[in-house]
Amino acid sequence: MIVFYDPGHSVHNPEREYTSGGPIPYPECADRAHGIGAALKEAGFTLQPPPPCAPEALRTVHDGDYLDFLSAVYSNQHPHSAELVPTTFALRGGRRPPCRRAQAGYYGFDTTPLTPGTCSAARASASSALAGAGALADGAPAAYALCRPPGHHAGRDYFGGYCYLNNAALAAAHLATGARVALIDIDYHHGNGTQDIFYESAEVFFVSLHADPSYQYPLFWGYADERGTGAGEGLNRNFPLPPGTGDDTYLAALDQALALIADFDPAYLVVSAGLDIYGADPLGDWDITQAGITRVGARIAAAGRPTLLVQEGGYNLAALGANTRRLLEPLATG
Ligand SMILES: [Zn+2]
Question: For the chain, does the N or the C end have fewer beta carbons within 10 angstroms?
Fold first, then answer.
């Protein structure tokens, strides 16, 4: 299996996250990717740096003004200047202010911070996903993009939930030129940005299994009756799952999701691979075991499509590398 990884993500390392219970050390840290990379190397995978993606490639999914904001917000700042945390939000009824720093609350939907390294790290992450899509288009049966920062909460013109550019959506859009693509999101949290991007798309079928948003982030999206609109009517499916979800409940929902994907008959499968489904993840409250993660990988491999896995969440640093390896191995050997 081809693995793409750009170590350039390390320049994005916010210090803290502002939660309703107060500030905590930022869970989406560079050591996440370092741990995954080390575990995969130990298992015999080779990590390849992706070619830097062309700026135009990002515009297939993202709004030009939003991309300009990401690249310009720190342009006149000292490289070690402080993190920018949006605290006043537009709710999109108001005007976009001219001040770049004030625009953080226009383009952000939560207190996810921006740092001087955020834009280049997000581009590096997107480059891995796009290189993975390119590998599939060239005939590879499977590829994995070790992306950081993650992407599935980022929409066409907004960031949040640790995400700035939607890596999986960029990959799916790349593959969807002339082919049908299914994008399954197995992260513990709903992929609200991805859903939003493809909500009217007839080419990309989006399916997400996640913690019920009635009690868990991102709260406002991810309900079962969100089914797509226009040309995308029926091509958005959500499986909200309860606290304490274990292997059997999760795998039963996954089987339903994969049956829908088989009916859609895509040429390619993209997986938003979040490992915060794991029972010991500090951000989740499920009961999925490490053996369960291997079974998830085996189910995805059995779907029998050229498959790109794109890293999303997963915050148990002691287990993340091994869990990623467990997810990938059925696809690497099948
Ligand atoms: Zn997550």
Answer: C
